[in-house]
Design brief:
Distance between the termini: 22 Å
Radius of gyration: 14 Å
Largest sheet: 5 strands, parallel
Number of helices: 5
Structural class: alpha/beta
Number of strands: 5
Shape: globular
C-alpha cells in the first residue's frame, strides 16, 4: 500500500516533469510508486565512488551508512539511515527535500540519478 505522502510526491514530480520538460522527474515519480520491496539500497562508499564534489544526487531507495563520502554532496533519497545522514552532513554536504530539489533544478540538469 502506498502512503499518501508518496502519492503526493509522485504527483508533484510528474507535474514538474511536464511543466519543465524534465524526464528525470517523471522517472523518479515512477520509482516512487514502485513497491518498497522493489527499491534498492546503496551504501555511502558507493555514492562516494560515483559522484564528485558538489554534485546533486538523487537515489530512489534507501541510503545506508556503511563507508563515507569524501566530498560534499547534496542528496535526496526516499529513505536514509541516521548514520548516513550524520556522515553526509559531517562531510559538509546536505540533505534536501524533493520540492527544494525541483525548485533548485527545474529542468533536472546537473542532477545525478543513481539507481
Amino acid at each position: 500500500m502506498t502512503s499518501q505522502v508518496t502519492v503526493r510526491m509522485a504527483r508533484d514530480l510528474k507535474k514538474a516533469s511536464l511543466k519543465n520538460d524534465a524526464p528525470i522527474w517523471g522517472k523518479l515519480a515512477e520509482y516512487a510508486l514502485k513497491p518498497s520491496v522493489a527499491r534498492r539500497d546503496i551504501n555511502l562508499n558507493r555514492i562516494g565512488q560515483l559522484t564528485k564534489d558538489n554534485d546533486t544526487v538523487v537515489f530512489p531507495g534507501k541510503v545506508l551508512g556503511t563507508g563515507t563520502v569524501p566530498h560534499k554532496i547534496t542528496l535526496f533519497s526516499f529513505s536514509i539511515s541516521g548514520a548516513a545522514a550524520l556522515k553526509i552532513t559531517g562531510a559538509g554536504g546536505s540533505l534536501i527535500s524533493y520540492s527544494s530539489l525541483i525548485e533548485k533544478n527545474p529542468t533536472g540538469k546537473g542532477v545525478v540519478l543513481l539507481g
